[in-house]
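Saturday, quiet lab. Running sequence design on the structure tokens for the scaffold JK sent over.
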């Protein structure tokens, strides 16, 4: 029985801290040695978002939710590159595309060149110069990527440990939650909501074991599209209430231009300018600080989010 409990979800975690009284002074001394609480050198690269979140805290599970087409994969990988640009080591598990497809996405965002034009080799001479420069920038970054064939939580855990054994990780990105299977679910066909709960708990375990923040993308319930007010809320997280419970931070992306064509917008909101590229990043849960929202700009042709002043 004890061995089963120690290997929940097929993950053999390091032993937790020993129990018993510890002097507060010793705890404070350790805290000061590693920086005051809230201090972090891991930043999203978006100043307003970092101000609200206080950066990305180690051992934190960050859930990034959005409807399909809102850009959740783009934002997650944009943040990954921003962390790597600052000198951090980042691991990306992309369960929806292969390594080459991910590389083109990252290259398009870094170069600011249309991803489709890169894929088809239809870029101009000026764009080629931007692509070559972007290749040089990305090659110098500590970015690791994997496309595991079985997409189960054990593979994610084992690969993360392998990377961490070579290079201390500063961020893990997992895209996306609903594509992952737990060890129990694969063996027993368990209820999907229960399985998702075991996966989010396992991700929290990886955060704690490797002392790394994890951003995991999550689909939302389709019911959000049927409401008059389509801004997502915590109850829109798909498959399990445990996603909200286990997350330290929940972010949502809301873009009106992904919901309305310009023609439909004029019918529904006559006289209001079309919000092309306007992206609201909603901080719906923040265990470390305040909630709220920030506005970014989204360039969908190159899959890149930018601060609005850029």
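Result came back. Writing it out in full:
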């Amino acid at each position: 029985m004890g061995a089963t409990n120690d290997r929940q979800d097929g993950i053999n975690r390091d032993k937790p801290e020993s129990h018993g009284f510890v002097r507060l002074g010793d705890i404070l001394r350790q805290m000061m040695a590693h920086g005051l609480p809230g201090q972090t050198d891991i930043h999203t690269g978006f100043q307003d978002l970092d101000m609200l979140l206080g950066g990305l805290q180690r051992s934190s599970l960050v859930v990034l939710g959005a409807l399909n087409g809102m850009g959740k994969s783009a934002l997650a990988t944009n943040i990954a590159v921003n962390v790597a640009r600052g000198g951090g080591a980042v691991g990306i598990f992309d369960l929806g595309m292969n390594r080459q497809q991910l590389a083109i996405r990252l290259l398009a965002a870094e170069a600011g060149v249309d991803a489709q034009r890169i894929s088809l080799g239809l870029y101009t001479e000026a764009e080629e110069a931007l692509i070559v420069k972007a290749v040089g920038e990305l090659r110098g970054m500590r970015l690791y990527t994997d496309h595991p064939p079985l997409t189960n939580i054990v593979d994610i855990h084992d690969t993360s440990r392998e990377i961490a054994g070579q290079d201390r990780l500063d961020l893990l990105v997992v895209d996306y939650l609903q594509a992952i299977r737990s060890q129990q679910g694969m063996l027993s066909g368990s209820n999907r909501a229960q399985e998702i709960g075991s996966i989010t708990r396992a991700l929290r375990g990886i955060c704690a074991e490797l002392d790394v923040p994890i951003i995991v993308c999550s689909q939302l319930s389709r019911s959000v599209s049927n409401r008059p007010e389509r801004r997502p809320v915590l109850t829109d997280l798909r498959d399990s209430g445990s996603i909200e419970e286990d997350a330290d931070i929940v972010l949502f992306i809301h873009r009106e231009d992904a919901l309305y064509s310009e023609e439909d917008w004029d019918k529904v909101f006559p006289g209001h300018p079309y919000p092309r590229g306007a992206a609201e990043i909603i901080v719906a849960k923040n265990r470390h600080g305040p909630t709220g929202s920030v506005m970014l700009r989204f360039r969908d042709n190159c899959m890149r989010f930018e601060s609005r002043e850029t």
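Notes for JK: The chain has one domain: 45-307. The radius of gyration is 20 Å. Ask whether to fix the surface positions before the next round.
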